[in-house]
Write a structure and sequence with these properties.
By secondary structure, this protein is an alpha/beta fold. The chain has a single domain, classed as Rossmann fold. A 6-stranded mixed β-sheet has the order 6-7-8-3-9-10, sandwiched between helices. Strands 2-1-4-5 form a 4-stranded antiparallel β-sheet, with helices on one face. α4 packs across α5 and α5 packs parallel to α6. The radius of gyration is 17 Å and the shape is globular. The protein starts with a strand and ends in a 12-residue tail after the last strand.
Length: about 240
């Protein structure tokens, strides 16, 4: 059965103007993201991939073109509508973990309970990412990989339909990065959350259902992987 596109981007452009400098971050981008897939956005720094993900996630607005989530037009949405969209439908994982130092892992994840309509219990989310034995540890007591897994648990605990990951392994060494990728792979397979992962690492592309290659604000190719590669085959 053909999967449904939950996000549809059409003719999307984003221009930043700083005085006399005009930067075209995105140029007429067309892209669909399908229900339940793990999509990898691949490109060098400055290729436009973070700008695209920020617009899809409702963190930024396009200069022209359209972004639709299900039956909603996000490009014409007001700030309140975008806030509700981010709160209920989208989870974010960034390169840096953005944990609150004075809160334990459990408390950091529990923060979403105040904003999500149907949150997953923090203990359940942390068990999903393999941190059931670190619930009451503070960020300073956790390794970088463990902190990133707490950040993933926090995003997943919202039970979003869409999880957007911007260089989630960018601050980690190779082995720790693979561990985080295993967690993301597990979350996608076990929960069905649709996932888009930004990376500049070509090897990571093989673990996704599709790879979208970006350069100079444009999509240069979209390739489907017949079989998702094992995380153990990823080489930094």
């Amino acid at each position: 059965m053909t999967k449904e596109a939950i996000v549809q981007v059409h003719d999307l452009s984003k221009v930043y103007e700083m005085g006399e400098v005009r930067v075209e971050a995105l140029r007429s981008v067309d892209l669909s993201i399908y229900e339940g897939e793990m999509m990898v956005l691949l490109g060098a720094s400055g290729s436009g991939k973070s700008t695209l993900l920020n617009i899809i996630g409702g963190l930024d607005r396009a200069t022209s073109g359209t972004v639709r989530y299900r039956d909603r037009d996000l490009t014409s949405a007001d700030d309140k509508t975008l806030t509700l969209y981010r709160r209920s439908s989208v989870g974010f994982v960034f390169q840096f973990y953005n944990l609150i130092p004075s809160l334990t892992a459990r408390e950091n994840v529990s923060l979403v309970s105040d904003i999500a309509p149907d949150p997953m219990p923090a203990d359940v989310a942390l068990e999903l990412v393999g941190l059931q034995d670190r619930l009451d540890h503070f960020p300073a007591q956790l390794s970088g990989g463990e902190q990133q897994r707490v950040a993933i648990a926090r995003a997943v605990a919202k039970q979003p339909e869409l999880l957007l990951c911007d260089e989630p392994t960018g601050a980690l060494d190779a082995e720790t990065g693979k561990l985080v990728l295993r967690v993301l792979d597990k979350v996608n397979r076990e929960t069905g959350i649709t996932m888009a992962i930004i990376t500049h690492n070509v090897a990571i592309a093989a673990i996704g259902d599709r790879v979208v290659r970006m350069s100079s604000g444009e999509i240069h190719y979209i390739e489907e992987n017949a079989v998702r590669a094992s995380i153990d085959d990823v080489e930094w």
